Amino acid sequence: MNETMVTLVGNAATAVEFRETATGGMARFRFAVTPRRRDRETQLWTDGPTSFYTVWAWRTLAANLAGSVGIGEPLVVHGRLKVRDEEQDGGRRTFVDLEAVAVGHDLSRGTAAFRRVVRTEPALTPPSHHGPDGGSEGAPGGTTDVSFAVREKVAVS
User: Fold this and answer.
1) Which of 15, 26, 40, 101 has the fewest CB atoms within 10 Å of its CB?
2) Topology (CATH) of 5-150
């Protein structure tokens, strides 16, 4: 399968929205990437135009994001680039999504303390993989209603 894998460096533009589904956790947040360039004539740094992406994460990564990432935090996001068009307000809009494979804090801009997640045993009841409309529940581009809750970032003492 040919997929476009990218690594982006930027900042969380929104809080992580988290939702539990029948197949595990799902999270999303907006991610801002602004290129910076040094002007050789003025010797000053200038910002280029900001690009915004919606980052999607699933299962364990989704839960870990919800407990780790806050608005404005510098991140490195690696994942599959997805472009989609939608009809909205009588016009066609293009959205760029990133299905995250890995997300971490940008350590060139600060420090972080890693905490390993203690896994619990899975439930004995197998989850349903289909939403009420027969489609895959929670998949980007699906027809099921996706309601998200914003979870508070876990404080470390």
Assistant:
1) 40
2) OB fold (Dihydrolipoamide Acetyltransferase, E2P) (2.40.50)
